[in-house]
Design brief:
single chain, Phosphorylase Kinase, domain 1, 14% strand, amino-acid biosynthesis, EC 2.7.1.39, transferase
Length: 319
C-alpha cells in the first residue's frame, strides 16, 4: 500500500476549502506508487489527485510546480497543479508538502501498440520543443556525473563479469560525453515509463509523475522512453515500435546530427542508469517503506542487448 500518511475526511475538507474545487464527496487511498502518499479525491465538481510528498528534496518541489504550470500553459497533457484562491499551489498537509492535481483520464498501457507509441512520440517531441524555453533549472540527478561515483557502491555485489561491464561502460561514457559536443538542452520528464502515462484506447490522456523532472540533454529523456517502450522481453528493440515512436517524435522535433551520432551510446547510458539505480535500492539504500524494489536484471538485459545488437537505424525526420 502506497499511502504512508493516512488522512481523514475532515483534514481533506479543510485542505480543499482553500481551493475553488468544490466540496468533498469521497476520499480513496491509491495503492500504486513507491515514494509518496496519493489519494483520489472526488468533489461535487470534479475528480482530483492529492499527493503528499514523503521523501526527497522538498526544496525542489517549486521547480516541479513551475515545470507543470509551464507545460500546462503550452497545452501539453500534464496535470497542471491547482492553485488556491491566493495563487499558491504548494501547501502543507499532515506536516507533509502537498499538491492537488486534476485527475487525468486513462490507464497505463501494459503492451503499447503502434498508435500509442506514435501518440507518445509526438507528444514528447512537442514537450521537448517547448521545454527548451523553460526558464527553470535543475541539473539532471542521474546523468554521467552521478554514474561515475555511484557505480562504485554496487561493484562488491556483482559477479566479476558484471563489475567489468559496469566499469568499462562508465569509462566509455566519459569518453563519449565528457568532451563531446553539447546536445540540445531543455526540461525533461526523467522517468517516462509506461506507468507514467495514461491512455484512453489509443489516445494519450496524460503524462504524470514529473518528480524526476530536471533540465539536461533532451536525448537522455528520449532514450529512457525507447528503452522501456520499444524493448522486447530479451531486451532487443522492436523495429515497429521503435520507428513509430521516433518518427512521430521527429515530426515535432527533428534530432540534430550530434544527437544522431550520440544515440547508440545514450541508449546504453540510460540502460545502465536504471540497472545501477535499481541495484542501489536492492543493496545499498533500500526504500523507507515495505515495498518490493524493481528488478535490476531487466536493465542489465537491455544493456547487454544494446551491446550485442547495437541501435536500430534512426528514421529520418519528416519534412
Amino acid at each position: 500500500m502506497a499511502v504512508f500518511t493516512p488522512l481523514t475526511e475532515s483534514q481533506v475538507e479543510a485542505f480543499l476549502s482553500r481551493f475553488d474545487a468544490g466540496s468533498l464527496v469521497s476520499l480513496e487511498g491509491v495503492p500504486a506508487g513507491t515514494e509518496n502518499s496519493t489519494f483520489f479525491v472526488t468533489t461535487d465538481r470534479r475528480e482530483l489527485v492529492l499527493t503528499l510528498f514523503e521523501q526527497g528534496e522538498h526544496e525542489e518541489l517549486p521547480f516541479f510546480v513551475d515545470l507543470l504550470d509551464y507545460l500546462d500553459e503550452h497545452r501539453l497533457p500534464v496535470p497542471g497543479p491547482l492553485h488556491d484562491r491566493d495563487g499558491v499551489a504548494l501547501h502543507s498537509l499532515a506536516d507533509k508538502p502537498a499538491l492537488l492535481f486534476p485527475r487525468l483520464p486513462g490507464k497505463h498501457p501494459r503492451d503499447p501498440n503502434l498508435a500509442q507509441c506514435r501518440a507518445l512520440g509526438e507528444t514528447l517531441g512537442r514537450l521537448h520543443k517547448v521545454s527548451q524555453h523553460f526558464p527553470g533549472h535543475r541539473p539532471n540527478p542521474r546523468d554521467l556525473h552521478w554514474l561515475m561515483p555511484m557505480h562504485h557502491k554496487v561493484l562488491a555485489y556483482l559477479a566479476p563479469e558484471d563489475q567489468a561491464l559496469m566499469k568499462d561502460e562508465v569509462e566509455i561514457y566519459q569518453g563519449a560525453f565528457g568532451d563531446g559536443p553539447e546536445l540540445p538542452q531543455g526540461a525533461l520528464h526523467g522517468d517516462l515509463f509506461r506507468d507514467n502515462t495514461l491512455f484512453e484506447g489509443d489516445r494519450l490522456g496524460g503524462i504524470i509523475d514529473f518528480y524526476n523532472g530536471c533540465t539536461g540533454d533532451l536525448l537522455f529523456d528520449l532514450a529512457i522512453v525507447v528503452n522501456d517502450w520499444a524493448s522486447d522481453e530479451d531486451g532487443r528493440l522492436d523495429v515497429e515500435r521503435h520507428d513509430a515512436l521516433l518518427a512521430a517524435y521527429q515530426s515535432r522535433r527533428p534530432l540534430t546530427a550530434a544527437e544522431r551520432d550520440a544515440w547508440p551510446m545514450m541508449l546504453r547510458l540510460t540502460a545502465l542508469r536504471y540497472w545501477l539505480s535499481r541495484l542501489l535500492v536492492v543493496y545499498v539504500d533500500p526504500p523507507a517503506h515495505d515495498l518490493t524494489p524493481h528488478d535490476p536484471e531487466r536493465f542489465r538485459t537491455i544493456l547487454k542487448a544494446r551491446l550485442a545488437h547495437g541501435a536500430l537505424p534512426l528514421p529520418e525526420a519528416s519534412r
